[in-house]
Design brief:
about 300 residues, alpha/beta, Rossmann fold, Alpha-Beta Plaits, 2 domains, five-stranded parallel sheet, five-stranded mixed sheet, 12 strands, about 50% helix, elongated
Length: about 300
């Protein structure tokens, strides 16, 4: 773990660096407050800081205040080094944002223990951030396929509609339904059905552009958002998704299973873009026509023809 040692006195800085590096930390040195602040603003700033209170340029307390104003993650644990022993001075330093302090001349063993405490706090905070990130992903992603879940893809659709209206650009949505999926479940079981859904999701995702979005809309239905795509481009992209799914069987423990998908496409210009429900209704109508026509095909819908209420 990196530790910033900010100390203007060369001898004290050398003693600190030697001690801290001897405990297995990677030391980054700063010779004054200005350099310390510059280092702490970097993306890979050390999470542990040993900083002298009184330095040329910004002093330690001033830096503490500015670090806390950044509200950055991961947390920066600051150990203030000071020759001051007045209780009010210590209170002022802690109120400014220092996590702990140690008086000069420092005791080597005390410094090691206090650093270890800071390291433990940083580790715990990192674990909390990782847990929060996992929960955030779980809240927006389908656990089976890894795609956006229904709520997240619908939220993304509303965002894309707003963007298309502002920029007067096209927006396409593609609603897909895996053909005869109930038969796959009934014949091979739900575990194989899950394998099929995961494979279809992966193929749809891999065949999408970087700025498209794909989500599991429900059951065996998938919704793809294709922004900035006029009608010809929209049809090409839908055909690309269609071909990606049907291009080869899905390999399962029970053998290869041929899989096809029916797709309904709705495309609109930002000047006359309907709301999300109307756009999905148009794609759903087109998907219904694809199924009625024999499945395993792409049909185009017309959102402007769908009543809005």
């Amino acid at each position: 773990m990196k530790v910033l040692v900010a100390e203007d006195d060369r001898v004290s800085r050398r003693l600190l660096t030697r001690a801290v590096s001897g405990w297995g930390y990677q030391v980054v040195e700063a010779i004054d407050g200005d350099q310390a602040w510059e280092i702490l603003q970097q993306d890979e700033a050390p999470p542990l800081v040993i900083m002298d209170w009184e330095m040329p340029g910004w002093d330690g307390v001033e830096i503490c205040r500015h670090v806390r104003q950044l509200h950055r993650e991961p947390y920066t644990y600051i150990l203030l080094l000071t020759a001051r022993k007045d209780q009010q001075d210590i209170i002022d330093g802690l109120q400014a944002g220092a996590d702990d302090y140690i008086t000069k001349p420092f005791d080597k063993h005390e410094l090691e223990v206090r650093l270890r405490t800071g390291k433990r706090i940083i580790k715990l905070q990192k674990e909390l951030i990782e847990a929060r990130e996992r929960l955030r992903i779980m809240a927006r992603h389908d656990p089976l396929t890894g795609l956006y879940n229904r709520g997240a893809i619908f939220e993304q659709l509303q965002t894309e509609i707003s963007r298309a209206r502002r920029s007067s650009t096209c927006l396409t949505i593609v609603l897909g339904d895996v053909d005869h999926f109930k038969s796959i479940n009934d014949t091979h079981g739900h575990l194989v059905g899950d394998e099929v859904l995961r494979s279809v999701a992966q193929r749809l995702n891999q065949s999408s552009r970087d700025y498209d979005a794909v989500g599991r809309y429900g059951g065996e239905e998938f919704l793809a958002l294709v922004p900035g795509c006029p009608p010809d481009c929209a049809l090409d992209q839908a055909n690309r998704l269609h071909q990606a799914v049907r291009s080869r069987p899905v390999e399962t423990e029970q053998g290869d299973i041929p899989v096809t998908i029916s797709l309904g496409v709705a495309v609109c210009n930002g000047d006359s873009l309907p709301d999300a429900e109307t756009l999905i209704h148009a794609a759903d109508e087109a998907l219904y026509r694809a199924k009625e026509a024999g499945r395993d095909r792409v049909e185009i819908g017309h959102p402007e023809a769908v009543p809005t209420g």
